[in-house]
Amino acid sequence: MKNRTFTEELVGEGCLGYSGTFSFNNNELILIGEKESPCGPDGFIAKRVCKLVSQSADPFYFESLICDGGTYYGSGLKPAGSMIKIQDVDAVIIEPRTAIARANIKIREKPSLSSKSYNCRLESEEFVPFFPKGRELALHARTLKKEKVNGKEAYWYFVRPDLDGYVSCSVDTNYTSLVWIFGGSVD
Fold first, then answer.
1. pTM for this one?
2. What digits encode the pLDDT tens for the residues 113-151?
3. Which residue of 17, 27, 51, 108 is surrounded by the most CB atoms within 10 Å?
4. Strands (DSSP E) along 15-63, which ranges?
5. At residue 57, what are phi and psi to the nearest 5 degrees?
6. What is the DSSP letter of 39?
7. How far apart are CA 34 and CA 18, in angstroms?
8. Which residues, at least 6 apart from 95, have a Cβ–Cβ distance to it below 8 Å?
9. What is d(CA 174, CA 80) in angstroms, rounded to the nearest whole number?
10. Mapping DSSP to helix (H, G, I), strand (E, B) and coil, where does residue 121 land?
């Protein structure tokens, strides 16, 4: 097969991405980076080998591209209504939407009051045991059944807190941007 070109755009500080050529060898994708890269010599990746995996480790995608140094997801996003497992929890993908925290809310590792809760670092560098009132969360999936918590009946939602790239949440020393919240705490 004839070689083709690619461009990988990166978001963040410093390197904006790089370009090169790609080819296929059996079930592998070979990426050869150009030496004249906007990433400079420190960010230059001469060669990467990738494989398309039909059963993605990410429950939201049908497939993923596993490369030296990372995993990429493309157009294989599962549609709303798809049944998935997240951390061994049965869930359903919903149309993504944003919600606002009505109060300071606990964000959890799993959809359960007994699950570990995360501490979030605020802009002030202070760690707090909650997600701050008034901040946005992006909802991506929910549990199959509603649960009653403190007199409110709602689903648990798998969400991405809308914290900027420098603010994060963690359980112990494990940082994440995807967590569970009880739906009775958001609008």
1. 0.75
2. 999 888 877 777 778 888 888 888 889 999 999 999 989
3. 108
4. 17-25, 28-33, 47-53
5. -70, -20
6. T
7. 7
8. 80
9. 28
10. strand
